[in-house]
Protein: Alpha-1,4 glucan phosphorylase
Organism: Orbilia javanica
Amino acid sequence: IESSIPAPLRDTWKKFAATEFSTKEEFQREVVRHVETTLARSLYNCDELAAYSGAALAMRDKLIIDWNKTQQAHTLADQKRVYYLSLEFLMGRTLDNALLNRDIKDYAVEGVSELGFRMEDLIDQEHDAALGNGGLGRLAACFLDSLASLSYPAWGYGLRYRYGIFKQEIIDGYQVEVPDYWLDFNPWEFPRHDITVDIMFYGYVRRYTEDDGSTVNIWEGGEVVQALAYDVPIPGYGTSTTNNLRLWSSKPSTGEFDFQKFNSGDYESSVRDQQRAETISAVLYPNDNIDVGKELRLKQQYFWVAASLYDIVRRFKKSHRAWTEFPHQVAIQLNDTHPTLAIVELMRILVDKEHLDWDTAWNITTETFGYTNHTVLPEALEKWSVPLFQNLLPRHLQIIYDINLFFLQSVERRFPKDRELLSRVSIIEESNPQVIRMAYLAIIGSKKVNGVAELHSDLIKTTIFKDFVKIFGPDKFTNVTNGVTPRRWLHQANPQLSALIKEKLGSYDFLKDLSLLSGLEKFADDKSFQKEWMDIKFRNKQRLAKYIKDTTGISVNPSALFDIQVKRIHEYKRQQMNIFGVISRYLSLKAMTKEERAKQVPRVSIFGGKAAPGYWMAKTIIRLITAVSEVVNNDVDIGDLLKVVFIEDYNVSKAEFLCPASDLSEHISTAGTEASGTSNMKFVLNGGLIIGTCDGANIEITREIGEERIFLFGNLAEDVEDLRHAHRYGKTPMDPALKEVCDEIQKGTFGEPGVFAGLIHALTEGGDYYLVSDDFASYLSTHKLVDEAFKDTAAWAHNTIVAVSRMGFFTSDRAINEYADEIWNIDPVKVDG
Ligand code: RUG
């Protein structure tokens, strides 16, 4: 490699090579050095933000040394790598996580304290890296943590949005979106000015015939934008392995195109072009489980996929292997359909640029990709309009047509008389305009397709992808149940619980092997352990109560039952059912005598979550929650018996203190709609119980922890279709308790009823698509069981301890090992510390 230092000079180099700090004093020296030189501040001018910045930069230096070692070890090992392509990485904060993963938090806390700061205050200065909407993006972040912790040679590829998910403000009870500009100071990334890729859009395809008769397609004449790489180190836990997350940022290409315009005096238009280029990576689309089909989104997808593939191919080509070796060196996982264009782009590279024949290229491609499906909701399945696609990516459309043609021909050969089947499985839907069904393209171009929890993986096989199971056989479809990283979601979020578990189990090994939690079960009836366990829960609830008081002014009693539902606001997740349930509870309390009230278990109903800016019904649900909280919290008859709180701007760092503070959390989607859910796992892992439907990972959680430890209710997925049908034909009278709630809303108890008319309409004339009425009675009666169960503190403690002890399955390490063995076929690489 030309850029390496000549061999005779390497000893000098090595003498001065960077070294990592490994004691408190060395850490302090680095913090102070960064504050004084990198930030040009001094001990007379160092606030918490400067101290955080110094600590973060010191930590970054440490990570980057391991990052370099890891990349060298991976290059030397020359093994197969996995590339995880995700349009979202919801990382949250990094400093605390890095300190814990590198196991230096204790001396770092002491170190900053001797410099005059409290570590928690510094940690609090950090802006969340919020490059995601919800579960899908957070899953990608947990997977990166596990990939590094398990020493797999892996890279993440994503977009470096200038604006992450919007900040949510609640003004007069309504959601208001505020831009999240998070890059003012981001110490965790490295711009790689030497790593840029030119990406083309629009243009036309020129086709000509070579002397040997073969046809060549050249895509040219389009607009060129440059992708610039930013690298983010991902430290593993208990290992030196530090993997790379590469995020692409868009900027104007430095090609002649701009110069010509500039020189010819068309300054304004050249600036406009620059801005157009920068727009591509400017903002994360704020939709979760909704496809909107905007051209800029398609641009983002192609920009990111093309830059990533260029990078992957460049790395592969360095090894001078034959192209047929590509799938033995490279596995690419498509996180949802967002990166599906990678299949088409790899075909374009292999056929148009590397001149491989179609069949060879197709074999390589279909051996390389894996596709994870995260939803069966029709409104979330991506489809791109053919005319829009034709204009933006003309060559890719031709390739898609060819993929489709060869695929349909093969289907026709196997199922000769089934014309309906051909139209059902065609990548092109014959609508007006025609659209490209991205999920179908992802299935056809991948080796394996997986769902994210057992029920979900079964559902995709029997519903939306049924025809493909018939065509490809069942083995192409598999399940990998999601998981969460116990490093962030137990050790970091709940340090006291983690320390107590360590005390009982003898070491922190459970953070690497979560199945070791099973060792806790034998203490489930130990009274003093139960007390310590419940005391930690109480302190976590006190911390949340203080946060609620400080941010909303609402006083809540930490001894009350904390009932939390935090996730994106979506009709299928049924926050509306929760708030209707709260209203029903309020009405019952109001109807009770003083004596009866005295026997009730006090509740705090806590909600949090963002609504997509254009999702009017979700915004109405937020408004109902805030309206109910205004009434209930100020009702003197009710006092502490019921409080309703909406936590503004729910994000990863808020989840970190909400999960440890729940007694009960709600995972109450209409059966069959929530692919997995992952917060259900986080809440149980933190010693809370859940109320939930038989949906997503709730089912496996039940299997693991035992049905006596979960409050399941509601109809099953297999009954949903019939129930919806009955609603359509007006055969389902509304549940009486729900009717009472609707009447109360319509009476104006919670303000102008017109505001909520849409919500009521959805239950009535709207056909109650999410089956709130059908599940309402069992939802309410199950809440009664919760109240009863909560009164028995010893039994509650026992059940939460047993539940935690059986949560080993839900670590993302297990999920990643399954992907590695069954889909990617990759092995770990040891990195010397
Ligand atoms: O809604 C799903 C969750 O059920 C799941 O746990 C998560 C991770 O697999 O992905 C969520 N999801 C699905 N986010 N976006 C989609 C649709 O593209």
Q: What stands out?
A: The domain at 78-93+128-481 is CATH 3.40.50.2000 (Rossmann fold). The pocket of RUG is lined by residues 134-136, 139, 288-289, 336, 374-375, 380, 452, 482, 674-678, 696 (CB under 6 Å). The longest strand covers residues 223-235.
